[in-house]
Task: structure prediction
Amino acid sequence: MASLENQLQRNIAEFINIDAHRKKYTNHYNALRDTIYSILKSEMPLGKWLCGHKLGGSYGDKVKITRPDEFDLVIYLKFPENDRIIVKRDPRKPGNVTLDMTEVLNILQRQDHQKDSFTVLKKIVTAQNLLLEDKLQDLINGAFTKALNKMEKRIIVDGMTSQIIYKRCGPAHTIFINSPCKYSVDFVPAIRLSERQNVLGGEELRFFRNIPYWDAIPKPMKPFQANNISFRASYYDAEKEMMHNKQKLKDVIKLMKKFRDSKTNMANVRSYYIKTVLLWQVKVRPVTYWSDKRLYEILIDMYDELASCLAVNQRRGKLRFFWDPNLDMFAAFTTNQRHDMFNCVIAEHANLKRAAGNLTSDINQIVRSSYSNREERGEPQRRPRNGQPAVAPVPPPANKPQAEQSTCIIG
Result:
């Protein structure tokens, strides 16, 4: 009889393998990325500030599941005299920072060759020289619009023409391609800051060994706030280093994401929430935990941790942002949402514990169904008594909870 450990590994191989589709998507994406970034480099002064890009999100972390049809591309910005930016925690918004450009502007004002940057930066700061998130995003939006107009909102790859649709969604400038393959790219601007400008305390800084940079993301406030001076602090490079060489950690994230996608009640659990649960466990558990424990044992432990974060009781569970525990990432969930998700997680926790003790054929089928859908399992679609195909309710996108849905602005 197969063990639960073997069944989970089979689920990963059968239902969470993107290799079969990778080449079709990445070839087109690479051409699109290079073309747009190259034209953005010619749009001044933004072109002077662009300093490279990196694949982020689930693809960058190597925890992508199903088809590789969503790309998160971080595009880095460094202003002239970038190290002169004075970074402070935003006392009104946990997890966020403010960027004081006073010293930067004082120096640029005396440099003739930086006249263009100085003139534009003066337009996107407050009277106190604090950088404005919404003004910076408007500038980037204008550069994207000009770049796509130069491309006539299309791109030719391998002799085939693809039309480009552009929208602004939250902090991202999103490109949608519908043919020959359907996918999207989130171009996420990030102001590259040095370790010296870090606002973290000593305990968090220990995760920055050999990590020279971190980022400030121009993420709009919800609801929208004009003249917003608050930027979300992002420590993607440090998080990636924390996850490195943690053996079974990435497989656990993949399974939890696949479970999330298979349950409509779990649609509000963003991928970053799952990642955050694991980051806290990296901090408190020995390195050997991720190699010595079996995959199913770690998975059961992580469902237990997630359930604790979702619990509604006298003390009400919380999922704290790893880099600033004052930010509760589950604060926007309603009590009903938390109950639904908690019950779903607890049920799966119980199923896995039963399966670990005795993997009967019926329990094995339940486990298999938790990490796949009917189409992936090759099962026929259910039909109601009237003979018509059943239409399941469509959940909100799995990576954006209802409380944080962004308004997309078509460019």
Observations:
- The radius of gyration is 23 Å.
- The first strand starts at residue 50 and ends at 56.
- Residues 22 and 68 are 6 Å apart (CA to CA).
